[in-house]
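Protocol step 4 of 5: obtain the predicted structure for the target chain.
Materials: sequence only (see below). No template structures provided, no constraints applied. The aim of this step is simply to have a reference model before the mutagenesis design in step 5. Sequence pasted as it appears in the construct record:
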Amino acid sequence: MAQKATCTASWSHAPGIEPLQGRHCVTDDAKNAAALAAKGAEELVDPASARAKPLPRQLPVVRGPDLPGTGAALVLAPARMINEVLYCERLMYLEFVQGEWADNVFTVDGQVVHRKVNEEVKPLRPARTAPPPESDEEVEEERPYVARSVWLSSERLGITAKIDLVEVEGGNVVPVEYKRSTRPDVPEGAYLPERAQVCAQVLLLREHGYACDSGEIYYAKDRQRVPIAMPEWLIDRTLQAAARIRELALKGELPPPLDDSPKCHGCSLVGICLPDETRALARDEEPAELEDDPSFDVGDDPWGLAVGIERPERGVRRLFPARDDKLPVYVQTQGAAIRLEGERLIVQSKGENAREARLTNTSHVALYGSVNLSTPALRTLLDRGIPVLFFSYGGWFTGQASGHDSKNVELRLAQYAATQDRERCLKLARGFVSSKISNCRTLLRRNHAKPDAIALSELKQLARKAREAEAIESLLGIEGTAARRYFAEFAGMLKGTGISEFDLEGRNRRPPRDPINALLSFTYSLLTKELTLAIRAVGLDALLGFYHQPHFGRPSLALDLMEEFRPVIADSVVIGAINTGVVKSDDFVRAAGAVALTTPARKRLILAFERRMDSLVTHPIFDYRISYRRVLEVQARLLSRVLLGELPRYPEFRIR
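Step 4 output (structure tokens):
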């Protein structure tokens, strides 16, 4: 049996449509095609006995036996992906080949529409063969019935499908595809991608010996059923689309994004695809998705998703939410117990009233020290894709428990290959370090009462040298020199009364020996946690970096991406916490030459950090406003595009 979840520990780094309306709802073949790869096509030859099982939403490549004389595996194209490839090749590739998935309001609505079909599994009986013409045998007419969640595959057609519903009456069968939206106002009653999806289901039923002349689409919102005829040209287009899926899957190259297309509005994968951002950063002209075949054209905005949306003449559209509505749950009271009640996490501490957090509103759970988490709660968190992160009582980030990793094997292979290329590692490292130094300089200019002109000039020169460094070892020296100059001026950014008690004599850690370094170490731990989560969400390996070399248990890639955000997020939180009185000189515990935060002060600092992560910032490259937490995800995804060869360089995040 496959392992349900993975648990990573012992990190040594210190202290953190239908998404488109009317289409792309979560269908059964999108939920269950993972079982094809796991069980093998040989178990699917008897569709009458197949039973639907709850499976991950991500959809891997479904492969049949090897093609004769080639040694290459036959890719069985799901009917749902035939819909996708006619709508957007990139969307199909992200879902089918790379296994990416994200929910939005449209996909969740689609799940509700398909719930009855998924829960009430009714098998399709084998096709009945007619007796020979010369036979006197009488065939008893079969009573009409309805089969649900019918899974069929054909190696000859190269297609597989999970059919929502099949109506059987008088020897004929009719597949019915459920859609969450309203019937579109077009003469055919449905758009080409949806008709091709139904056509694939009809072809599969015919292949398995059933008499099937047409199919239907049921639009749940207005409760209308639309018959779908099967002309020869539609059959040809469907088979061409299946062949195109196999071609793209075997080619192993992510298709280019749509160019300023209204189709992107409402797509649940738009935050993963980043179409406008990718095109804005790419230099070379990409080839067209499909040949200029008018039969594949579905118009500029066939589903009317861009109505009322301003379309700037130039610039990058922000097609995803500026903030994540979900929030993290921090538990640091020693001896606290977390249990599960329905859809809520209940946190019970001794002598305090129980507190609760809804699972639907929780992004991750961070536990500090001795906090008890029940097994049912942990299992549910892993099933929901909510990571659980473990810290020592003092804030040392020790590891995390999470569900299955991303299925994007292509990205992992590209990352592993890049780490073996010293030139690529150096190119990325130059950007990380130079961007960090530039942001440190900007922070001094913004917050220092009287910034030292010599210090600013030195940091500017060091940032330039970092961009021209010829070896990673040289970058380490440049970064160290810049850090010493920066922290020598750090105290000048502190304001208010009692500042004299916050002395800083350079950066020190493990353990920190003064209050400012204790604050910096704790916020750096929180930031490490955030970058690790973003990296895992994208599908990268957090342990394998480019600037920070691999070290046992260290999230090197998280530290790489963290460099440019240290001054922007962590240092800014510390400066703001001191200047606004969030933490004071008596909020620290001093013992054996080390300094640590008290529990109440740590709570206040976590709140300050979360406010910073949730605050909106204008992206310096794309010029739209998103939260810092969203920025981390965008930057991690752009790094993945660089590794896959879609972008020529990593776009550094440099504040103005």
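Step 4 remarks: The longest helix spans residues 422-447. The CA atoms of residues 437 and 461 lie 10 Å apart.
Proceed to step 5.
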